[in-house]
């Protein structure tokens, strides 16, 4: 009988019966550490800025080290008498087995006594100690996306069911580059991508979709498919995500031709499409959440014979909601669509998809050890053509578990809740005597500017300082955006469980901080 456990003295693996119990025990350790560190938190992020965060980690990794500030917000660590993990008397359970015969302090590669011995010790401190110590530091030193005053980015709190599903996937560790490493995960991915393909392209006979790491990869692949179809010039609005220009560079294409925007949206009357082009429209811009006029852009692209890629990384989840789906009218006329589920979708990073009007064939490649011709002919699925990556996590699992748990309408209700809160917050900004609203939100992004900043460029420095002050004091995590040649504070609401009253208190905090900063 084959033993799926580990040899005596070796750290337990995550799989098998023994591994299951080890994971249960370590999860309990981790959750206890999370609970303890969470009780000590005083806000959405740690106060003190980068130096304080680095110091807190250094106290664990280099307890005898001294940090000497360089006066620019960063510091240099100087090791004193090293007394970190090397001095631990705890047995190396879950770390390096005692008496393993590894290189001693005389080895040229030994880390004993080095300034980095806390993170790469010569001998481990044990699984429970390492997990508890670093978990406490991580919780204490991280931003908390569940906090209502943490609203800077498209960075949402994951659903509990998605986080636990991610743990299960990590335990089993399927690798999505060949069927014999991920039998059922690859079949689940086939089912889920087919569902998403038909969600975005319901009238097409054979739409397709790929699981990606997020909008950046989805846009890269979308433009790659366009290039392989003959496109040689990217055209996008000035509101497009920076990943569009990066993808053009990576693919050896010229810099994108930029189209002016108005009210945060691409101006269709300024859209000139050259021959052999790919047009990128945005459904949910990073700065304002605006959705480009997709039907009109699609009409222009079709007349020019251009590929149309829609970056719906932010707004794509509107299709889960019958009420919000009209925002994406025209998306079905695109050739490729990017959507992120670690934004609206509440997945742990990373979780993205690229939907395409027709089957994806441009990524196909042969590697005899993964997809030999005779295996494919015999019926084994070929996974290499499903991604630019070779080894990749089964991110489909957490997505599938979440969608099965909540259903399309359940996710849609969460999206609606966030967008409704943004509308209420915008009304509160308009009514606030010390704040100015940029415009009515389309999705869940609200831009505001303290009235004391005025409407001239000099006020931009004050707006930026308000944001940095709240950040370094650990009181609030706000974003910033340059729109209409001015700097605005940005609130992106992705927490459907947030208390709207807390958002109103945040407005008062911003106004008071702006007044204090001015004086």
TrEMBL record:
Could you tell me which SUPFAM superfamilies the record lists for this protein?
PLP-dependent transferases
Q: Which GO terms describe its cellular component?
A: cytoplasm
Q: Which GO terms describe its molecular function?
A: aromatic-L-amino-acid decarboxylase activity; pyridoxal phosphate binding
Q: Which residues carry this modification: N6-(pyridoxal phosphate)lysine?
A: 343
Enumerate composition-biased segments (Low complexity).
Answer: 78-95, 105-114
Q: Cross-referenced InterPro entries, in alphabetical order?
A: PyrdxlP-dep_de-COase, PyrdxlP-dep_Trfase, PyrdxlP-dep_Trfase_major, PyrdxlP-dep_Trfase_small, Pyridoxal-P_BS
Query: Keywords for this entry?
Result: Decarboxylase, Lyase, Pyridoxal phosphate
Q: Provide the residue span(s) of the region labelled Disordered.
A: 70-115
For activity, the cofactor(s) needed are:
pyridoxal 5'-phosphate
Respond yes or no to whether keyword RNA-binding is given for this record.
Answer: no
Example of a GO biological process term = carboxylic acid metabolic process
- Which Pfam families does this UniProt record tie to the protein? Pyridoxal_deC
Which family is it part of? Belongs to the group II decarboxylase family.
Q: What is this protein called?
A: Aspartate aminotransferase family protein
Q: Which organism is it from?
A: Actinophytocola xanthii
């Amino acid at each position: 009988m084959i033993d799926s456990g580990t040899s005596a003295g070796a750290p337990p693996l995550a799989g098998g019966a023994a591994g299951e119990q080890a994971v249960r025990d370590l999860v309990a350790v981790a959750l206890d550490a999370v609970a303890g560190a969470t009780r000590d938190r005083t806000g959405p992020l740690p106060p003190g800025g980068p130096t304080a965060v680095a110091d807190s980690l250094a106290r664990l990794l280099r307890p005898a080290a001294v940090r000497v500030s360089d006066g620019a917000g960063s510091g240099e660590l100087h090791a004193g008498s090293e007394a970190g993990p090397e001095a631990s008397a705890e047995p190396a359970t879950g770390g390096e087995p005692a008496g393993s015969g590894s290189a001693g302090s005389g080895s040229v590669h030994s880390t004993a006594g080095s300034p980095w011995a806390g993170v790469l010790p010569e001998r481990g401190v044990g699984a429970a100690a390492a997990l508890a110590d670093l978990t406490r530091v991580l919780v204490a030193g991280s931003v908390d996306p569940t906090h209502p005053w943490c609203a800077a980015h498209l960075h949402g709190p994951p659903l509990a069911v998605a986080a636990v599903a991610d743990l299960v996937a990590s335990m089993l560790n399927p690798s999505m580059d060949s069927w014999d490493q991920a039998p059922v995960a690859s079949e689940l991915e086939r089912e889920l991508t087919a569902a998403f393909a038909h969600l975005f392209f319901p009238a097409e006979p054979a739409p397709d979709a790929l699981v990606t790491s997020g909008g950046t990869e989805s846009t890269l692949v979308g433009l790659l498919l366009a290039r392989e179809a003959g496109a040689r010039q990217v055209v996008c609005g000035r509101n497009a995500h920076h990943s569009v220009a990066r993808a053009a560079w990576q693919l050896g294409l010229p810099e994108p031709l930029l189209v002016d925007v108005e009210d945060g949206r691409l101006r269709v009357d300024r859209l000139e499409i050259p021959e052999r082009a790919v047009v990128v429209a945005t459904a949910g811009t990073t700065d304002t959440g605006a959705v480009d006029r997709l039907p009109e852009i699609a009409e222009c692209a079709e007349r020019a014979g251009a590929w149309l890629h829609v970056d719906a990384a932010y707004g794509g989840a509107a299709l889960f909601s019958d009420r919000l789906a009209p925002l994406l009218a025209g998306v079905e006329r695109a050739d490729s669509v990017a959507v992120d589920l670690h934004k609206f979708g509440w997945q742990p990073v990373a979780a993205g998809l690229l939907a395409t009007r027709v089957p994806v064939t441009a990524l196909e490649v042969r590697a005899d050890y993964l997809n030999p011709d005779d295996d494919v002919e015999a019926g084994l699925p070929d996974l290499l053509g499903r991604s630019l990556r070779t080894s990749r996590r089964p991110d489909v699992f957490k997505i599938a578990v979440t969608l099965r748990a909540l259903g399309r309408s359940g996710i849609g209700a969460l999206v609606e809740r966030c967008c409704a809160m943004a509308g209420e917050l915008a009304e509160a900004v308009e009514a606030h005597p010390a704040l100015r609203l940029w415009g009515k939100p389309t999705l869940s992004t609200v831009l505001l500017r303290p009235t004391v900043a005025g409407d001239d460029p000099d006020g931009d420095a004050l707006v930026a300082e308000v944001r940095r002050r709240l950040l370094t004091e650990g009181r609030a995590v706000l974003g910033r955006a340059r729109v209409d040649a001015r700097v605005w504070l940005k609130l992106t609401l992705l927490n459907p469980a947030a208390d709207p009253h807390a958002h109103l208190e945040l407005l008062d905090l911003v106004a008071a901080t702006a007044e204090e900063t001015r004086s």
